[in-house]
Amino acid sequence: MEHLLELRNVSIDLPKGKRKPPVKLVEGVDLSIRKKQNFGVVGESGCGKSITCSAIMGLLSYPLTIGAGSSIRFQREDGSEVEITSLPKSELRKLRGKDISMIFQEPMTALDPMYTIGEQINETLRFHTSLTKAEMYDTALEMLKKVKIPRPEQILADYPHHLSGGMLQRVMIAIALINNPRLLIADEPTTALDVTIQAQILDLMNELRESYDTSVIMITHDLGVIAETCEEVAVFYAGQVVEQASVDVIFHETAHPYTTGLLRSVTSLGGERKELYTIRGTVPTAGNFSAGCRFADRCEHCMEICKKAPPALTEVAPGHLCRCWLHAGEAEQADKEAAV
Ligand SMILES: Nc1ncnc2c1ncn2[C@@H]1O[C@H](COP(=O)(O)OP(=O)(O)O)[C@@H](O)[C@H]1O
Ligand code: SF4
Ligand SMILES: [Mg+2]
Fold first, then answer.
1. Exposed/middle/buried for 25, CB within 10 Å: 0-12, 13-18, 19+?
2. In a domain, 322, yes or no
3. Which end of the chain has fewer CB atoms at under 10 Å, N or C?
């Protein structure tokens, strides 16, 4: 296996009872993450970013299930591969917090208000290492210093509600990195923070990445965050990847009208202030997708064919994928037009 993580044809089902087929919240997602790569996943709220990550963690919440034919393969440190979709729960638990860890938008929901920060860091260490109590204390202290928390001794003895949002997110990053994971999934880690703190946390993550061999999946609705942190990006819309390329290509050779809309809604890029723009309409919910392109009713370039036939994800240039009739191969387009 060439990559650290490979998703192939991943779908996530919402069951609708025995007699009805499930609703596909996510459909046909293929992603490959290399070692030490910083990979971005971007899209508006409701596009399926978080549940895709839950699937990678083996943590889909009831009643969601992984769709038939989905594959999520992960390469362990010893080079062995595991298929996450069929891994027993006990094995998944060993993987989480050690090989794969995650930080969330709301650190408060991930931390237990009844335990001190020190106790919660120790919990992660105890489960995955055989360090003594004294060694755990030293490791925790060291880690809090790495995430630049002032007065780390004091913070170890504090409860979560004593800390500000920015400090809590630093604690979460410390817990996520303490076992030196191979993959860190960051789901909107700065969305709940104000702009200054947001910039500090992104700087910190960029800095830490230099000293860890960790690959990062950065999930966000904000292409500005992607520009600051990632090399490669997949744009999600209504449960599918609609465009994927290097960050440079996404910004300068944008192919999909949805990505163009997202780019126009970024408030400031490289210091240049832009007028606030929102894409008209809203993301359709699963079960209400149009028969053609899922973006059709919001798209300024919508053509007849877009309403009737779903465009396929095709390579428009080497390494640049796009799901849009504007960029479909000529032969494919002629074929479909003849059929509709
Ligand atoms: N447990 C669940 N039951 C039913 N629908 C869900 C559940 N979790 C998520 N969804 C739906 O799946 C879609 C994708 O959700 P999510 O991955 O959270 O989006 P994003 O992270 O991109 O904002 C949304 O329409 C959401 O309502
Ligand atoms: S396929 Fe058509 S409707 Fe969909 S994004 Fe492309 S141009 Fe717009
Ligand atoms: Mg989300």
1. buried
2. no
3. C
Give, to the nearest 10 degrees, the angle between helix 133-146 and helix 117-128: 110
295 Cα nearest atom in ligand 2: 4
CA distance linking residue 324 with residue 320, whole number of Å: 12
Between the CA of 187 and the centroid of ligand 3 the distance, in Å, is 7
Asked whether 14 lines ligand 1 (CB < 6 A), one says: yes
Give the total number of structural domains in the chain: 1
SS3 per residue for 115-140 = CCHHHHHHHHHHHHCCCCHHHHHHHH
Per-residue pLDDT of 2-51, as tens digits, reads 799 999 999 999 999 889 999 999 999 999 999 999 999 999 999 999 99
For residue 223, tell me if it sits in a domain.
yes
- Sign, CA torsion 5/11/14/17: negative
Question: Is position 202 within any domain?
Answer: yes
State which residues form the domain around 246.
5-99+181-255
Ligand nearest to the CA of 328: 2
Ligand 2 neighbourhood includes 295 CB (under 6 angstroms): yes
Q: How many Å lie between the centroid of ligand 2 and the Cα of residue 33?
A: 27
pLDDT at position 308 is 95
Specify the 3-state DSSP secondary structure of 71.
strand
> For the CA atoms of 298, 11, 59, 237, what is the dihedral angle to 10 degrees?
-20
The rounded distance, in Å, linking the Cα atoms of 40 and 44 is 13
Tell how far the Cα of 139 is from the centroid of ligand 3, in angstroms. Answer: 31
Let me know if residue 186 belongs to a domain: yes
CATH number of the domain to which 220 belongs: 3.40.50.300
Give 63 Cα–ligand 2 centroid separation in angstroms. Answer: 32
Instruction: Give pLDDT, residue 274.
Output: 54
Reply yes or no: is the peptide bond before residue 21 cis, omega within 30 of 0.
no
